[in-house]
Amino acid sequence: MIAYTVAARATGVITGTLYYQAPPPDTADLLTVPGWYPGWQYRIDTATLQPVERQPIQAVMSATSITLGQSATLSNLPVPCTVDVDGVMVPVADGILVLTPTTVGVYRIYIDEIAYLQKTWNLEVTA
What we know:
Number of helices: 0
Strand content: over 45%
Structural class: mainly beta
Number of domains: 2
Helix content: under 10%
Radius of gyration: 18 Å
Mean pLDDT: 95
CATH superfamily of the largest domain: Immunoglobulins
Distance between the termini: 58 Å
CATH architecture of the largest domain: Sandwich
Largest sheet: 5 strands, mixed
Number of strands: 13
CATH topology of the largest domain: Immunoglobulin-like
């Protein structure tokens, strides 16, 4: 059996791995690439059909703990991108996201853009 990585044809997002004795056929929506490439670490280049390592996100969080009424800035984000802030998807067009929470707690900030490795920050907001 040979491992084949399966990816979305439109985006190159890896969806899984299949094992076959012969190459499986590609479909209109999916493509297969010989070998095992985990989706958290790789994407498939849709032009060359080659696996490409996802790069670290160079984003920087200005603070991991703030008091209510203060802001924290997430800068140097991919342009454009979408950031998950505690389950709310926030589009970012300019590479900068200013967070000004209105309640006390710990906020999970997560990004998973196809060309980059996933990254998570926690922002603690105190009274």
